[in-house]
Write a structure and sequence with these properties.
Length: about 800
């Protein structure tokens, strides 16, 4: 059966949707309320044998396009289509169906369309219109449920209801049913593991990560002792994925969906490339936010995100929660090619601001969020909440859209029959990017403005510009630590995340670096962000919810990973070049599998690349990023630089691409498994379990609690913390944060109120303290720490 005979337009249903749109816009209390209702039936959706499609198309009004030039384009593969193939040439049948329009909306309906599911492919679609010169233009679906070839290709009609019906964690959600009409509200977890899917496992996909947690589950059920690879994943209440939405594509191609004329006008031949970009997750185009980045999908099926939620929710002994990281504060400039211009309010340092005050844009963004979280997330982390702004023409200034942030956290989700509201975390450093933001930000603007008392923000030690391997860091941040102790119970804590680790690799090694952390720059960086004393402080003393980054706790590498740039790729690599000094030594570079692309370009040794990187950043600055001039100057260096021979603009771009692709492979956690130290991974696991056993530590310090540093300083920073729980249990923590060795002293004999008396037992000691230490005098060195506890 051909597509033309299988699919039949249902004009009555399309007309009904357009009329419903008209009624809502006429009768709703506000334009935003109207567009919020209309948003529910936008995108491609399936109801039995009927598929409906809704688009917000103000650009058609801008261009005055008549109804007779607007169609729903439907395509179905004639040849077998395998989403697991890297490259294939596929012929598609194509038909055009009529649409019904009302003002800035267009609707279509059809019977007989194939909807994709886990084990079968669906038909592809887009809205198309024809201009006065008979040139066709395509309107992509920003609310698509499946985008096998990315946000810049036609969407696949997908059966979301079938995906939800077959999810493996329905019993988990059923367990939260209360019989109340009020939606269930998820509470904060005890701690969080932050994961970048492409570098967390050798497979680099959601399916691969799901298998990792499935193996952990089976090992736990079988009572097998955990090995170091197990331990870096265990002991967490929640997993937060870096953004899983579609990101930017290659600026100069190749396109993942490239069309050429078919045998006749009813066919089109398409060269299909499996999406293979590398990105740290935050370079998004907004379009496609309701589904999953196909780069992360081993099978090409969005069901993999549901599978991952299910394996977490079914984890033995204690279910783990899923937190999704959403990015709605900006769009990359590529978003201009994926969405109509009405979505945008002008350029910013990341790309484009979004027009949050446009009621249609506002409603569509919130609907995207609702659909994404319906994959089964228990929590949401909002990236860059300080960037949600709008221009107030009355006062002629940008204002924070706190009302929009409240609307984000008020969305009710529907999963497996449960109506619920997720737990929310906002990253908000306002008044950033004001120059004094590190001093003036209180990191509580969203917390104080929201109606819920369990809304969280990233705390001050979690933000990007924290470098705990520079001497003086801990005392310089003591005023922030005091804030954490007093008001930090609704903060995310911890110094190791995707932002801080990246910034750490950009620090000038000539600064006053704490060389007691290691003998090499690599050792210093790794220990700074997987520091046993810092972790002890975070988990046994500080309030809030601790969060660790898997690339830090596995002592893997990390950086700004993005291989799509053509115009500014060389500049980005010049900015990242300093990370070579921090993350790559001669041995690591020499490993045959590492940096193979750069070696093929002529950088056979680390010394070869390091010399090139000494020149590149300086020339980017002095030439104001003039690539022709940079290439000419590099060719004049004596003795000549290693690399691809004569430097050209093309050669510079190939080097930049090779660096990004090689670094992406180098940063994979699987590369560090053989080097994991079981003493460190075991200690960190025990530390996390201690926090889970004592959830009261999340709260602010009370009147009987104590936190301070030992005076006089005498060239070292010793933090002491005494905390008393609601049941009378007492926890005492002492950590050596930086500096020289102490003299021989007894930590339990310091003059701290509450410490008096007997009954203390040593519960945790950092790996650099012998297991035979129970109590008594000790010499403490950098990165040492002890936790004692006593029953009430």
């Amino acid at each position: 059966m051909t597509l033309k005979t299988r699919v039949i337009a249902d004009k009555d249903i399309a007309d009904g949707l357009a009329d419903r749109c008209r009624q809502i816009l006429t009768t709703a209390e506000s334009a935003f309320a109207a567009h919020s209702q209309i948003g529910r039936f936008l995108g491609g959706q399936v109801d039995g044998d009927v598929a409906t499609f809704g688009f917000w198309t103000p650009e058609l009004l801008d261009h005055r396009i008549p109804d007779g030039d607007v169609f729903l384009e439907v395509m179905a593969p004639i040849d077998p289509l395998d989403l697991t193939r890297s490259n294939q040439e596929v012929r598609f049948e194509r038909i055009y169906l009529p649409v019904a329009r009302y003002e800035s909306h267009a609707f279509a309906a059809a019977r007989g369309m194939r909807a994709g599911q886990r084990d079968r492919g669906g038909d592809f679609y887009a809205l198309v219109w024809r201009d006065g010169d008979n040139v066709w233009h395509r309107v992509l679906d920003p609310l698509a449920a499946s985008l096998p070839f990315g946000a810049f290709a036609p969407a696949e009609l997908y059966d979301i209801e079938a995906m939800q019906m077959h999810r493996g964690d329905s019993a988990y959600f059923a367990g939260f049913q209360t019989g109340s009409e009020t939606p269930y509200k998820f509470e904060p977890p005890t701690n969080i593991l932050q994961i970048h899917v492409p570098t967390a496992t050798a497979g680099g996909t959601l399916a691969s990560l799901t298998r990792q947690y499935a193996r952990l589950s089976e090992r736990l059920e079988a009572g097998l002792p955990p090995d170091p690879l197990d331990e870096i994943f265990l002991g967490y209440d929640a997993v937060q994925l870096l953004p899983v939405e579609p990101t930017t594509v290659y600026e100069t191609g190749p396109s993942f969906w490239a069309e050429s004329p078919g045998e006749d006008e009813d066919q089109v031949s398409v060269t299909l490339t499996r999406p293979n970009t590398t990105n740290w997750g935050y370079d998004i185009v907004i379009s496609g936010m309701a589904t999953v980045n196909p780069v992360l999908l081993e099978s090409g099926r969005p069901d993999e995100l549901v599978d991952f939620a299910s394996v977490l929710h079914n984890f033995p002994h204690k279910p783990k929660r899923l937190i999704l990281d959403v990015v709605f504060g900006h769009a990359d400039n590529q978003g201009l090619d994926a969405l109509n211009s009405h979505f945008f309010a002008g350029p910013n340092m990341y790309g484009q601001n979004l027009d949050y005050k446009n009621p249609a844009v506002r409603a569509i963004l919130l609907e995207m969020q609702r659909r994404k979280v319906n994959f089964g997330a228990d929590g949401v982390r909002v990236d860059g909440a300080q960037d949600f702004k709008w221009w107030d023409y009355t006062s002629q200034e940008l204002k924070h859209d706190d009302e929009y942030l409240q609307q984000m956290s008020s969305i009710v989700q529907e999963v497996a029959g449960l109506s619920y509201r997720p737990w929310f975390v906002f990253e908000d450093g306002r008044p950033w990017p004001q120059e004094d933001w590190e001093l003036s930000s209180n990191y509580r603007a969203v917390i104080e403005g929201q109606t819920d008392d369990d809304v969280f923000q990233w705390g001050p030690l979690t933000f990007a510009h924290n470098t705990p391997f520079i001497y003086g860091f801990w005392l310089s941040k003591f005023w922030r630590i005091r804030e954490m102790l007093e008001v930090g119970e609704n903060w995310i804590s911890g110094t190791a995340n995707h932002d801080t680790l990246r910034r750490g690799t950009q620090v000038n090694p000539k600064l006053n670096i704490n060389t007691r952390l290691g003998d090499t720059k690599m050792e210093i960086l790794e220990k700074a962000y997987d520091n046993p004393a810092v972790s002890m402080l975070t988990y046994a003393a500080f309030p809030g919810v601790p969060m660790d980054f898997i690339n830090a706790t596995s002592r893997s590498n990390w950086g700004f990973i993005r291989n799509q740039d053509d115009k500014y790729g060389v500049k980005v690599v010049a900015e990242e070049a300093i990370s070579l000094k921090w993350q790559v030594d001669e041995y690591s570079y020499s490993v045959p599998g590492n940096f193979r692309r750069l070696k093929e370009l002529g950088f056979e040794t680390r010394e070869d690349l390091a010399r090139f990187f000494e020149f590149l950043p300086a020339l980017v600055d002095v030439t104001d990023y003039d690539l022709d001039h940079i290439a000419k100057l590099l060719n004049g260096v004596e003795p000549p630089l290693a690399g691809p021979g004569t430097m050209t603009v093309g050669a510079l771009k190939r080097i930049a691409r090779a660096w990004m692709d090689d670094m992406h492979e180098y940063c994979n956690v699987s590369n560090s498994v053989s080097m994991l130290d079981p003493r460190q991974t075991g200690y960190m696991h025990r530390l996390r379990e201690f926090r889970r056993e004592n959830p009261w530590l999340r709260r602010n310090l009370g009147p009987e609690d104590h936190f301070d540093y030992v005076r006089p300083v005498d060239g070292r920073v010793l933090f002491t913390c005494y905390r008393k729980g609601p049941d009378g249990k007492q926890v005492y923590t002492i950590t050596h944060m930086e500096g020289g060795d102490t003299s021989d002293f007894d930590p339990l004999r310091l003059p701290i109120q509450g410490l008096e008396g007997a009954g203390w037992r040593c519960r945790l000691r950092t790996p650099n303290i012998g297991e035979d230490y129970i109590s008594g005098p000790i010499v403490m060195r950098d990165s040492m720490g002890l936790v004692f506890e006593r029953d009430g």
